Amino acid sequence: MKARVHVMLKDGVLDPQGEAVRHALGSLGFDGVGSVRQGKVIEMDLADGTTEETVRDMCEKLLANTVIESYSVDLG
């Protein structure tokens, strides 16, 4: 079974990498980009029967800093 975890900084948390990407896009002539938020995607191959609750526990303990990041889990 595969799991995909999307981790993003919470709204209101400064995103310097996203700001650097926005600035670089403008420098390359891509006008009209108001803001950029950068996150990460973590893909895992898991044993069959692994529950979403287990993956969320992984996120809470290691994969996401829940003070400043939010996450979503897709199992498939």
Describe the structure.
The chain has 76 residues and is an alpha+beta fold. The protein has one domain: Phosphoribosylformylglycinamidine synthase subunit PurS (Mth169, Chain: A), CATH 3.30.1280. Helix content is 32%, strand content 29%. The chain has helices at residues 16-27, 52-63; strands at residues 2-9, 39-45, 69-75. The chain has a three-stranded antiparallel β-sheet with strand order 2-1-3, with helices on one face. The longest helix is centred in the N-terminal third of the chain and has 12 residues, at 16-27. The radius of gyration is 16 Å and the shape is elongated.
Any chance you could write out the topology, listing elements then pairs?
Blueprint: E1 2-9, H1 16-27, E2 39-45, H2 52-63, E3 69-75
Antiparallel strand pairs: 1-2, 1-3
Structural class: alpha+beta
What topology, given as strand order, has the largest sheet? 2-1-3
Measured distance between first and last alpha carbons: 6 Å
Say what the CATH topology is: Mth169, Chain: A
